Amino acid sequence: MIEVRDLVKHYGNKHAVNGISFRIEKGEIVGFLGPNGAGKSTTMNMITGYLSATSGTALIGDVDILEDPIAAKKNIGYLPEQPPLYMDMTVREFLNFVFDLKKVQLPRKAHLDEICELVGITHVADRLIRNLSKGYKQRVGLAQALVGDPEVLILDEPTVGLDPIQIIEIRNVIKNLGRERTVILSTHILPEVQAICERVLVINNGKIVADGRAADLGARVDGVRRLNVRITGDVKVVAPALRTIDGMKNVEILGEKESGSCDYQLTSAPGIDIRQPLFRKLEQLGSAILEMRDAGASLEDIFVKLTVEEDVPAKGGKRARKNKEDKQ
Amino acid sequence: MKAIFKREFASFFRSPVGYVFIAITILVFYGVFYLVNISGETADMSTLFLFAQMLIALIIPLLTMNLISNEYNKKTDQLLLTAPVSVMSIVLGKFFAALAVIALALCGTLLIPVVLASVGGFVFWTTLGNYLSTFFFAAAFLAIGIFISSMTESNFISGILSWAVFIGLLVVDIAVGSYDTPFTVAVGKWLAFYSRFDNVRLGIFNFSDFLFYISIAAIFLFLTGRMLEKKRYA
Q1: CA angle, A185 then A186 then A187, to 5°
Q2: What are B's interface residues with A at a Cβ cutoff of 8 A?
Q3: ipTM for the complex?
Q4: Do A101 and B4 touch (CB under 8 A)?
Q5: Architecture of domain A224-294
């Protein structure tokens, strides 16, 4: 369990984290989502005791990280943004060092072998970390966090630098680990949150701007629903008919992607489910639905909405952010 | 502390640093021994330890320059500072690892007293005192070096700065020794890192001289701990 109360971090005049509170139960995987510089890493660094908070507290289990840091840190496995690896050691030497450093009481060889197996680094265990690829270094970083079987895992962008297959593997590892632990992971990759996390905390400018299930978050943001539908029949007949459906806000024609049909993006008014009326209407027309996909409020939309539109900071903030994005 | 000591000590010998340090120490000791004691036909080791002192001041930055700077630089301090260990045990682990390398280097020179003892004119207690004070002298410089290393991310700056400080202390020591005013004597006594050694070399042991080096080491190790803590409040 992690409980964070009113965490604040100031760097001089800059408020990197500005009053963040949340509580995460055992067995929950929570995603920190936010643009670069939103305060995700700073928050993680405070929870793990690497940085001190300007004010506020973080409890790991029942232990305050500031009051009893050593006891609190025992229960945390932390993978920072840049995996903290000693390049001059082999993977095995390094994990043994971490094992000693954390004063782990488990059977050494079995425990470390299990971790290596889990993150898929058994076959590179005797290679120097310096010589590993970025993806493998990232895995060793994850392995390091798992040493000692901590109850709380804090992973700062755990899948950076991995190839697509590795990403899927590591996501599954994290999902499995999350069943009996408390996991926080940060990312600015939206599909990652959708793939792993049950709950999302959207962070921007050092504040939580949204907290909820990945699925619920969409409805909360705009309340509208968007469907991508592929419908057979003539556009000139189908499109006007679609517009007559109650609750239909907008019909956008996306064009013919399969011969004899056309793709539409349908936007419904807040709170109205148009799927059934849509089906009936098309039945009358003799058209068929070939494909229907919920395109409504994807995390991309939520993200953009929450971080750019709703939470415009002081004057010039939006422009500043835009410039930053341009640079990236 | 044990884990950090082990890692750090091993890491000195994963790179050439540990070997180079020991090799230079041994070369200088045996070189001076040959030139002074064998050529000069004397069993007096005071010249030898005078060189030992200079040598240590010159090569200790080799051991300390990376010791903490590199942790910042490679972000491995995040691992250490989020591990369930105290800051002081991190500092002490590193300190004792470097001290062990120095001890090893000094052990490599023990053939000299053995040879001298077999020839005669050798005073056991003076030699032991010299070795001990060399060791404590080194410990004090080591602590200063570690402190400097904890101030910067750059091992280059850390190394150069340690060097500058060690040589600066020597200059101060010499300068203060040559101006005999009450003020310089008072200041000099506190900054006399090198000349404190003179008595020991001549076989005069004063517990306060040892205590001086130990205190310096303790103070700078404590300050290093504070420096690491301070980073958290940045």
Answers
A1: 125
A2: 2-4, 6-7, 10-11, 14-15, 74-86, 232-234
A3: 0.89
A4: yes
A5: 2-Layer Sandwich (3.30)
